[in-house]
Specification:
Distance between the termini: 63 Å
CATH superfamily of the largest domain: Glutaredoxin
Keywords: Cytoplasm, Disulfide bond, Electron transport, Redox-active center, Transport
Organism: Psophocarpus tetragonolobus (Winged bean)
Oligomer: single chain
Strand order of the largest sheet: 1-3-2-4-5
Number of strands: 5
Protein name: Thioredoxin domain-containing protein
Shape: elongated
CATH topology of the largest domain: Glutaredoxin
Largest sheet: 5 strands, mixed
InterPro entries: Thioredoxin-like_sf, Thioredoxin_CS, Thioredoxin_domain, Thioredoxin_H-type-like
Strand content: 15-25%
Subcellular location: Cytoplasm
Number of domains: 2
Length: 147
């Protein structure tokens, strides 16, 4: 009877260890995947987590407020993705205004696309519209100031 209990205990412990290792691997992959890409934010909780992460790291956060039906948003999205690949020291977030109305209302978004530039939780700049050159210059300006 003792051997059976011990065997069940050992098997349970092995499963727990495997599960913990799997979670650690997923967290590492998620962190690596987030650098150099635009992160879509789908909940208020995720929004708050990304803001907090940006505040702690003191990184520049570029937020693309977009909508699935917005033509200029679809035009600028691949450009922003290319910029994100070149600038892993900047956090790039994408928020769908229809999906996260409370967040877009909180930040006073009235047109799409609108790009907000945040440092330590404070708005430092804003670009309204799919203006490639202005977007690139504004990101460069604040990314170098952050470094």
């Amino acid at each position: 009877m003792r051997k059976v209990r011990w065997l069940l205990f050992a098997l349970t412990e092995q499963k727990n260890i495997r599960r913990e290792r799997s979670v650690v691997k997923k967290d590492k992959r998620r962190t690596m995947a987030e650098e150099g890409q635009v992160i879509s934010v789908h909940s208020v909780e995720a929004w708050m987590q990304h803001l907090e992460k940006g505040n702690e790291s003191k990184k520049l956060i570029v937020v693309d407020f977009t909508a699935s039906w917005c033509g200029p948003c679809r035009f600028i999205a691949p450009i922003l993705a290319e910029i994100a690949k070149k600038m892993p020291s900047v956090i790039f977030l994408k928020v769908d205004v229809d999906e996260l109305k409370t967040v877009s209302e909180e930040w006073g978004i009235e047109a799409m696309p609108t790009f907000l530039f945040l440092k330590e939780g404070k708005l430092v700049d804003k670009v309204v519209g799919a203006k490639k050159e202005e977007l690139q210059l504004t990101i460069a300006k604040h990314a170098t100031a952050a470094a």
